[in-house]
């Protein structure tokens, strides 16, 4: 604004000057007095006008001052609120009048699922009920709907937290329903398995379909459970930010999208192995009980311009000879066929080759599951046994589908479609599942035998011929009691029982895919990804595994089967590689459902551990992810209705500490249900974990890693604190750990590698943490011990190790718990060692000097 003080007053000042002086200079007394009076009057007038001008100026200058705004702020606020209320009211009324603008109930369900299930996303306890009440019932929101506090509560505080009045009224209705259900359940007690726990209200609904139980069943007040209210005497949710919460275990719930992880993560698209469809196909003829190999005429022009090809097939047969009988196969002569041919029932695997002129234009392979007399006789014998026993229900089959190196968090992060399908289709998740050892072999052996690594080495060492054949694998027990068995694993070189191991002398199961893969990897075109075989001919290597599972389920749909199907190739070496297979894996799960397989099959979809090396493994999240694989169970509807206590147990165990030994006991529990096993030793507790039990029974709430036979090095229940990495205590401990590694290598296998490996030396400490743990000694006394976790580098070749040890600085007494982990790659350093037990600790002399 322009300053008007001088310009506006100039005419008045000019008048004063003119009136004060006469032109001729003559004055008298009266004239002087008159002049003075006139001047005073003019000055007064001038002052008034100046004051008015100044008031105008001051008005404009003070318009933005605090006092002026403050006097008018309430009116402005009221006006703004009034306008906002009119807009909201008009919008709400318009939306409520148009059902097409409302989200579907599925959308609301998944919205609740996303908020309650995916770690790192804010959970609003009453979101589900508010959405359902306001949108689908078209009733106004509660008058005082407030966002619940996010403070972490102890279990006792969670039990006593208050619910909104709306939820309390709903809870009273559920209690009445529960009393009716309980009265009806008393008259239908299970004859095979009994439990002291109460069944949940709706046994046919899986609470784990929504991991935080926000919307798993329409009749259950699940929203109140988010505030800590018990759904059942045994079901209580942990505080926000935890998967398990008890006195002995506080397992963190990780955010999948932490920046430290996402900077090393990317999404990939699914890529088919070939653009052309296969030239041949194989089908099983249920009438002739034979497979038929035929040429697909429709795609023939893509392989031959003349439309003519010469095709033949050869069989792949397991040799079973030599020092590693599991690694050798033989091939028959290539037998020509035209158009279509019926395959002999004795053939297990074939390779097909076609030529156009003098050029080979096609090669493919097919693993088969031919009908076998001994298998059919076994199945018929046990069916007759069931009939004689008076069994009215079909004996359930068991299907185990595994993916290597995928943590629970990475399943959500990298395979969201698969995760969503599991959560929305009533699968039961074991969120607190903790691995028991380093890599695949000991964790799978815990599932399949119930033994830990040391027990396996004593009883059936994989480094000795015939040893694995003498192991008490659970699939053998299933086969002995009327099941047809199968096992398949891709990437033959790194198979669980063969990588730097002897393997099996005899096929461990009825249908064994390894011989086919050995032949296919040798003769079919391969494409590598992250160092592993991604494509094998016209299919992804993993497709051969899961198609084998589909074939088992299809061929023996009306019989009982047990199968383990394990994929390595798209997940083992890269945390992002599995993103491209997300849709693919989800479709396999859907296929089993569409085939009717799920109607009488208990399915375990699981992994062994998370990513064990690479940049993500060096982060805090990566440390925990490595130890927390994903595990989901499918229970057929028929079994949910017959055994409501199983449903209750699975819901309880969702947020309890569990492990691979529990999975083993679950497999034994399923066998117990068949009433076919008469030898109690076949169903005995795990050797390595006497306190472990079936997942179909509720786990103790205060279960500790010690109870579950999980070494402190692998246990995720303990809250560690960061300590100064170069302290005297940490440095002394690190030197002791390096001495421990050197002694282990020097004495391993009767000093076999002592001269091959250079002793490691201290380089630096990367990080150090400390925690305390309650332990019970042999006399039942509880004591507190200090546990240190140290990550350190060694010379030569900058090996990065992570160790956990119970350590007393005063006495220098150290006890290493579990194995010492190697966090960076070591294949180039340890080529001189062929034994997996010492390989990760060795730096070969030839690599150094």
TrEMBL record:
Record key words, sorted: Membrane, Transmembrane, Transmembrane helix
Transmembrane residue ranges: 75-92
GO cellular component: extracellular space
Composition skew (Low complexity), residue ranges: 22-38
Region (Disordered): 1-55
InterPro entries linked to this entry: Alkaline_phosphatase_core_sf, DUF229
This protein's name: DUF229 domain-containing protein
Organism: Stomoxys calcitrans (Stable fly)
Origin organism lineage: Eukaryota, Metazoa, Ecdysozoa, Arthropoda, Hexapoda
């Amino acid at each position: 604004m322009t300053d008007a003080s001088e310009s506006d007053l100039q005419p008045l000042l000019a008048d004063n000057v003119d009136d004060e002086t006469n032109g001729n200079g003559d004055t008298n007394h009266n004239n002087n007095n008159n002049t003075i009076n006139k001047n005073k009057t003019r000055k007064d007038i001038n002052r008034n006008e100046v004051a008015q001008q100044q008031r105008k100026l001051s008005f404009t200058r003070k318009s933005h001052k605090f006092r002026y705004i403050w006097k008018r702020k309430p009116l402005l606020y009221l006006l703004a609120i009034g306008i906002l209320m009119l807009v909201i009211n008009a919008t709400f009324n318009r939306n409520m009048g148009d059902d097409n603008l409302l989200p579907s109930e599925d959308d609301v369900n998944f919205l609740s699922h996303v908020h309650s299930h995916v770690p790192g996303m804010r959970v609003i306890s009453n979101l589900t009920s508010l959405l359902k009440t306001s949108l689908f019932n078209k009733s106004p929101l509660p008058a005082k709907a407030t966002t619940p506090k996010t403070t972490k509560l102890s279990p006792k505080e969670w039990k006593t937290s208050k619910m909104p009045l709306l939820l309390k009224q709903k809870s009273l209705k559920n209690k009445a329903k529960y009393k009716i259900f309980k009265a009806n359940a008393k008259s239908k007690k299970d004859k095979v398995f009994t439990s002291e726990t109460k069944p949940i209200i709706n046994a046919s609904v899986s609470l784990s379909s929504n991991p935080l139980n926000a919307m798993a069943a329409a009749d259950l007040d699940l929203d109140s459970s988010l505030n800590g209210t018990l759904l059942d005497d045994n079901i209580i949710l942990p505080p926000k930010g935890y998967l398990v919460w008890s006195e002995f275990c506080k397992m963190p719930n990780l955010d999948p999208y932490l920046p430290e992880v996402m900077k090393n993560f990317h999404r990939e698209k699914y890529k088919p192995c070939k653009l052309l469809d296969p030239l041949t196909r194989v089908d099983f003829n249920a009438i002739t009980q034979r497979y038929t190999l035929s040429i697909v005429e429709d795609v023939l022009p893509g392989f031959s311009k003349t439309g003519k090809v010469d095709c033949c097939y050869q069989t792949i047969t397991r040799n079973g000879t030599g020092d590693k009988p599991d690694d050798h196969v033989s091939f028959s002569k290539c037998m020509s066929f035209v158009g279509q041919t019926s395959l002999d029932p004795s053939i297990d695997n074939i390779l097909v080759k076609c030529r156009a002129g003098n050029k080979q234009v096609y090669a493919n392979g097919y693993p088969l599951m031919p009908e076998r007399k001994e298998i059919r006789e076994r199945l018929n014998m046990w069916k007759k046994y069931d009939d004689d026993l008076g069994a009215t229900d079909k004996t359930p089959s068991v299907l185990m589908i595994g993916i290597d190196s995928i943590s629970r968090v990475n399943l959500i992060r990298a395979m969201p479609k698969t995760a969503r399908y599991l959560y929305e289709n009533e699968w039961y998740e074991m969120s607190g599942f903790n691995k028991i050892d380093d890599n695949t072999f000991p964790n799978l052996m815990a599932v399949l035998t119930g033994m830990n690594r040391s027990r396996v080495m004593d009883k059936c060492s994989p480094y000795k011929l015939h040893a694995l054949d003498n192991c008490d694998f659970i699939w053998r027990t299933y086969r002995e009691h009327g099941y047809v068995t199968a096992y398949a694993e891709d990437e033959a070189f790194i198979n669980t029982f063969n990588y730097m191991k002897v393997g099996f002398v005899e096929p461990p199961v009825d249908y064994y895919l390894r011989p086919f893969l050995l032949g296919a990897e040798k003769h079919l075109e391969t494409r590598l990804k992250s160092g592993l075989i991604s494509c094998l001919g016209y299919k992804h290597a993993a497709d051969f595994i899961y198609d084998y599972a589909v074939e088992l389920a299809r061929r023996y749909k009306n019989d009982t089967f047990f199968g383990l199907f394990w994929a390595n190739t798209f997940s083992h070496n890269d945390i992002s590689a599995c993103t491209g297979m997300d849709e693919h894996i989800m479709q396999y799960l859907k296929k089993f459902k569409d085939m009717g397989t799920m109607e009488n099959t208990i399915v375990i979809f699981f992994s062994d551990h998370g990513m064990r090396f690479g940049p993500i493994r060096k982060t805090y999240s990566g440390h925990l992810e490595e130890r927390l694989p994903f595990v989901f169970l499918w229970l057929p509807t028929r079994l949910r209705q017959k055994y409501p206590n199983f449903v209750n147990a699975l819901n309880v165990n969702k947020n309890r500490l569990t492990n691979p030994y529990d999975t083993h006991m679950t497999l034994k529990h399923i066998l117990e249900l068949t009433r076919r096993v008469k030898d109690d030793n076949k169903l005995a507790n795990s050797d390595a974990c006497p306190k472990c039990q079936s997942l179909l029974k509720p786990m103790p709430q205060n279960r500790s890693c010690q109870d579950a036979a999980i070494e402190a090095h692998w246990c995720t229940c303990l809250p560690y604190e960061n300590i100064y990495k170069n302290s005297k205590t940490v440095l002394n401990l690190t030197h002791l750990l390096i001495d421990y590694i050197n002694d282990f290598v020097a004495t391993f296998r009767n000093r076999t590698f002592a001269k091959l490996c250079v002793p490691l030396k201290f380089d630096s400490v990367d990080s150090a943490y400390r925690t305390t743990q309650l332990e019970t000694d042999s006399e039942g006394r509880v004591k507190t011990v200090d546990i240190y976790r140290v990550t350190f580098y060694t010379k030569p070749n900058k090996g990065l190790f992570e160790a956990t040890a119970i350590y007393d600085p005063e006495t220098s007494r150290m006890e290493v718990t579990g194995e010492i982990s190697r966090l960076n790659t070591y294949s180039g350093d340890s080529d001189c060692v062929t034994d997996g037990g010492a390989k990760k600790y060795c730096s070969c002399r030839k690599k150094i000097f």
